[in-house]
Specification:
CATH superfamily of the domain at 365-398 and 414-596 in chain A: Exocyst complex component Exo70
Radius of gyration of chain B: 24 Å
Oligomer: heterodimer
Shape of chain A: rod-shaped
CATH class of the domain at 365-398 and 414-596 in chain A: Mainly Alpha
Distance between the termini of chain B: 40 Å
Number of strands of chain B: 0
Structural class of chain B: mainly alpha
Subcellular location (chain B): Membrane
CATH architecture of the domain at 365-398 and 414-596 in chain A: Up-down Bundle
Distance between the termini of chain A: 111 Å
Largest sheet of chain B: none
Strand order of the largest sheet of chain A: 1-2
Radius of gyration of chain A: 44 Å
Pfam families (chain B): ROH1-like
Membrane topology (chain B): Single-pass membrane protein
Structural class of chain A: mainly alpha
InterPro entries (chain B): ROH1-like (IPR008511)
Order of helices and strands of chain A: HHHHHHHHHHHHHHHHHHHEEHHHH
Family (chain B): Belongs to the ROH1 family.
Largest interface: A-B, 62 and 55 residues
Number of helices of chain A: 23
Number of domains of chain B: 1
């Protein structure tokens, strides 16, 4: 294109070729630019020295002629490529349009009889034409990623959302400013919002987002819901991490000269998108009973919503809707999580297991389930703390409601968070339940084994998780440990004291002489008791390796020396080795070996004699 | 009166009576039921006449809808109180047949109502879109004298507006909305039109079907049933269906074909029946009229807007600048002023209406939770844990 001295391309005959470098010889090729400058000067003067007296509108007419031809030139260019070929040219065009807007505003101030009417009309027409052109190009550019074929060499699209090149954005920025200055803010914003909504919609569809009705959600199986939840969380995170920030940047770039408009538009877009996204969690929290293991999915949702809530959204009306709806949903999800967790308490309390005790005094399935559940839950500790804190605030509970047995000893409790208190409550319920179950065992020995097994398991699990350990407190663990020791002692006494009595040195002598009868009786009793214990307690289970060896060691350390000394002392009182063999069934080494069979959980037939 | 105030005073009255030692058990339940019916009837009769500040000759204006939703919230609060109080008298009555089944059906209906709330909120976005376009037209034509540029500007906005209305209408009345036709109309090549909102409900969802489903099994209680708690459950169900129907009628929402013919199973023996039926008939009549012309919802403001838009379109089509002013221009200016007035109403009323709908949504959710809780406590739990 032929370039004038100012770099302006006038194309006064209305013909322009995009990309055609051929000079356009025009006899006015140098004059128009001079005239152009002059026209602009006159117009500026007109604008400044404007008064309602006599006004010469000729310069305006000339200006309008120029404007008309410029607009015509741009109109002829291909859509989406109207601007951007020549930066100075474009800048001048927008300047011209801005001047036009100013002129019109001035002219409209004139009284209606000043003869300006037709001038105003012409100006208005040209103005509108310029706006049509601008708006159309604005829309085309915004819609660019929809219409372009992929691989189009002229395509200005980028790889990342929102897929606009910096050039496109710069052009849109100029158009927006010009339209807003011209009083066409409404058209500009309607176009922008509409097309951005469309683009965001397309992004969501790419992520396979689908609206799910409340009605349908109500009927879905958990398996399907779980899939949807996963998808939803993924989409939500994408929105808060990428989509919204990119969108905000785009708004700020396109409307850089009008930050409040940018803010408003972003807010409206974000709200629109968010309301749509929130339909799903809203449907989920319609009360139906969720079983305990569903907790974690809800906590995932809660965490995804946190970021949304923390987003800077501004102060306008839509912002209020955004804020209130997101916090409402988050609150509901939190409440659902609370009620699911609380079901754990119900499950524990109501677990009667048909009044049949666990075989062999082993760790009860409920104990395993509860401890593993709590361990997993504490991976969400921060979220749960928040959720329960919120819940408490809503219920207006005071922190004073501390579990009774802790008030004196554990002042950590007084400062415990709502979730920690909840945790303690669950532990208390579990303890009570185990206690109750232990009473189902008729054998006291087995009862203590049961209590030890479960207590040990609980303690181990708690030690494995620093979060739980810290929440329950150090003295809680100490208390447990001393309880375990107590059970251990009780077990010892219950099981082995009778046995020990049979091999006590006292009472064997009658009138200063060792009674063979008593001796025989003693050995018979010892054998019987020991056999009985062996028979039953080998079938008992102590799964914790350390506990098992502790038990065996403590039994051995008492039994073996006692037996050895008894046998050693009184063995010789038998008539002969045959008689001795009849009564002394076991050698001390045998006892040692047999004790090692205890608590293996063997079936009776496996017990070696 | 705001629903919460009403609830407080109603419950206040009830508890006052409760504090007095009363020998007769069953009677105050009966009184409560009668009071409830009476209040429903009064409130709906009031709705038969449009609010004072409204100048439209049709019923479904923004402020009328707001009043309707207020009435709903009041009735719902009273309904809940009656049912829960009734529970105090005869504990867990609501969890025994036939009441438990009726309440479950009611709760199912309320779920469908939730989807309708979403769809209607969606539709309000369309209305807001109309408002924005109308504002452009109204202000452009508000200038004196009107120039070519303004006429064209106004015409462009009016054209977009009419197209938006007709697309919404098509979408709302298409019997088979296949994906392709939806996407075609939405992503139309005509760049002047862009979607004003994002869909909130699933593609195949239909407002008409939803409301139809809500009327399923909605029968007036007979005989002995009619004197117990079954009757307020029925009343509240009818109210809910009516309110949703009216909203769907007023505001463009997805797929409303056949909605005008929704059958309301009412017996005219109760006073409240008559007022609701009266309203229903009035609205249905309006609908039949409009259905022939095709309309994007019966909302009075939108209806009026459409009329004005057509008038103004005629004007702008035949407009030629001549520097002066004449009768036609005067008329156009008047129409433009009226249009601006409607936009102002929308500006002031749409957001409160939207918030009201959200309030209804959240109330339904909350009440549902309370009912399910009460049913559970009654021994018969609802669906087993998922």
């Amino acid at each position: 294109m032929g370039k004038s001295q100012n770099g302006e391309n006038l194309g006064t005959d209305g013909v322009s070729d995009g990309g055609d470098e051929k000079n356009n010889p025009d006899e006015l090729s140098s004059e128009p630019c001079f005239k152009f400058d002059q026209i602009l000067k006159d117009v500026d003067q007109f604008i400044e020295k404007f008064d309602s007296g006599e006004n010469n509108f000729t310069c305006i007419d000339q200006f309008l002629e120029m404007v008309d031809s410029e607009i015509a030139a741009y109109e002829l260019r291909e859509a989406s490529a109207k601007f951007g070929l020549n930066m100075e040219e474009d800048a001048s065009f927008f300047e011209v349009v801005k001047r036009l807007s100013t002129i019109i505003r001035r002219l409209e101030e004139l009284p209606s009889d000043s003869g300006a009417a037709s001038c105003v009309n012409r100006a208005g027409s040209a103005h509108h034409r310029a706006m049509l052109l601008s708006e159309s190009e604005f829309r085309t550019l915004l819609d660019l990623n929809m219409d372009r074929n992929e691989g189009d060499p002229r395509s200005k699209t980028e790889e990342e959302f929102p897929y606009f090149s910096t050039e496109s954005i710069a052009i849109m920025n100029q158009i927006a400013s010009t339209m807003i200055f011209a009083g066409y803010e409404a058209e500009c914003c309607i176009a922008y919002s509409g097309l951005r909504l469309k683009a965001l919609d397309a992004e969501l569809s790419k992520l396979s987002f689908e609206n799910i009705n409340v009605d349908d959600a109500e009927r879905m199986s958990w398996e399907s819901l779980e899939v949807e939840i996963g998808n939803w969380i993924h989409i939500m995170r994408h929105c808060t991490n990428n989509l919204f920030s990119s969108e905000r940047m785009l708004c700020n770039s396109v409307f850089s000269e009008h930050p409040s408009i940018a803010q408003r538009l972003f807010c409206e877009l974000a709200t629109s998108l968010t309301m749509r996204l929130l339909n799903f969690p809203n449907a989920l929290v319609l009360p139906r009973q969720y079983s305990t293991e569903k907790l974690f999915k809800f906590l995932d949702i809660y965490e995804a919503l946190l970021d949304l809530n923390n987003m800077e959204i501004g102060n306008n009306l839509s912002a209020k809707e955004f804020v209130s709806e997101t916090s409402m949903v988050q609150c509901r999800i939190g409440e659902t999580a609370v009620s699911i967790f609380s079901q754990l308490e119900n499950s524990i309390e109501s677990d009667n297991a048909g009044r049949i005790p666990v075989a062999g005094g082993a760790v009860h399935p409920l104990t395993r389930y509860t401890m593993n559940y709590l361990k997993y839950a504490c991976e969400y500790k921060d979220t749960l703390e928040q959720v329960f804190q919120k819940h408490n605030e809503m219920e207006e509970l005071t922190v004073d409601k501390v579990p009774e047995n802790y008030t004196e000893k554990d002042d950590r409790c007084l400062q415990a968070s709502p979730f920690a208190l909840k945790l303690m409550k669950v532990m208390d319920l579990l303890d009570a339940n185990i206690e109750m179950k232990s009473k189902l065992y008729r054998s006291h020995s087995l009862r203590y084994i049961f209590l030890m097994n479960n207590g040990r398991y609980i303690l181990q699990k708690i030690k494995e998780s620093t979060d739980i350990y810290d929440m329950l407190g150090h003295s809680w663990s100490r208390k447990r440990t001393s309880e375990l020791r107590r059970y251990h002692k009780l077990y010892q006494r219950e099981t082995w004291s009778n046995v020990l009595q049979t091999i006590s040195h006292e009472g064997v002598q009658v009138n200063g002489k060792v009674s063979k009868t008593i001796l025989k009786e003693r050995f018979k009793n010892f054998n019987a008791l020991f056999d009985e214990i062996l028979k039953t307690q080998s079938t008992w289970v102590v799964s914790d390796g350390q506990l098992k060896s502790e038990l065996r060691v403590s039994i051995s350390s008492v039994m073996i020396p006692a037996y050895r000394s008894f046998v050693g002392r009184f063995q010789s009182y038998f008539d002969n080795s045959k008689q001795a063999g009849k009564y002394i069934k076991y050698q001390p080494e045998d006892i040692e070996e047999l004790i090692e069979q205890l608590f293996e959980g063997n079936t009776t037939s496996m017990v070696r004699r | 009166m705001p629903a919460t105030d009403y609830q407080a005073s109603f419950l206040g009255r009830i508890s006052l009576r409760r504090n007095q030692v009363i020998a007769m058990d069953g009677n105050h339940e009966q009184e409560d039921l009668e009071l409830f019916s009476k209040h429903v009837s009064e409130r709906f009769t009031e709705l038969l006449s449009p609010p004072d500040d409204v100048v439209f000759d049709t019923l479904l204006s923004i402020s009328w809808l707001r009043k309707l939703l207020d009435v709903f919230l009041c009735c719902e609060a009273e309904f809940k109180a009656v049912l829960m109080m009734g529970d105090d008298d005869h504990p867990f009555q609501i969890s025994k047949p036939p009441l438990d089944r009726l309440i479950h059906e009611f709760l199912d209906r309320s779920i469908k109502a939730l989807d309708l709330c979403n769809a209607v909120t969606n539709g309000l976005d369309s209305v807001r879109h109309y408002q924005k376009l109308a504002e452009i037209a109204a202000s452009a034509l508000g200038q004196k004298p009107i120039g070519d540029g303004q006429a064209r500007r106004s015409r462009k906005a009016l054209n977009s507006l009419l197209m938006a209305m007709s697309v919404d209408d098509k979408e709302c009345s298409a019997v088979k909305t296949t994906e392709r036709s939806w996407s075609f109309s939405r992503l139309a090549v005509n760049k002047d039109r862009s979607p004003g909102h994002l869909r909130q409900v699933a593609k195949k969802w239909s407002a008409a079907k939803q409301i139809q489903a809500m009327t399923w099994n909605l029968v007036p209680p007979r005989g002995a049933e009619g004197s117990g708690l079954a009757s307020p459950v029925y009343t509240m169900s009818v109210i809910m269906v009516f309110v949703m129907w009216a909203l769907a009628a007023a505001i463009p929402c997805q797929e409303r074909n056949g909605l005008s013919a929704t059958y309301f199973p009412v017996r005219k023996q109760w006073s409240w029946d008559q007022s609701i039926t009266g309203l229903h008939e009035k609205i249905a009549e309006e609908w039949k009229e409009k259905e022939k012309k095709g309309a994007a919802g019966l909302l009075s403001e939108v209806q009026k807007m459409e009329k004005l838009v057509r008038n103004l379109m005629e004007f702008t089509d035949s407009f030629q600048f001549h520097g002066g002013t004449d009768e036609k221009a005067e008329e156009a200016a008047d129409h433009a002023a009226e249009l601006a007035e409607i936009c102002k109403r929308m500006e002031e009323g749409l957001l409160p209406l939207q918030m009201k709908i959200k309030e209804v949504f959240h109330r339904i959710v909350r009440s549902r939770a309370e009912f399910l809780q009460a049913l559970k406590q009654g021994g018969k739990s609802s669906a087993p844990p998922v």
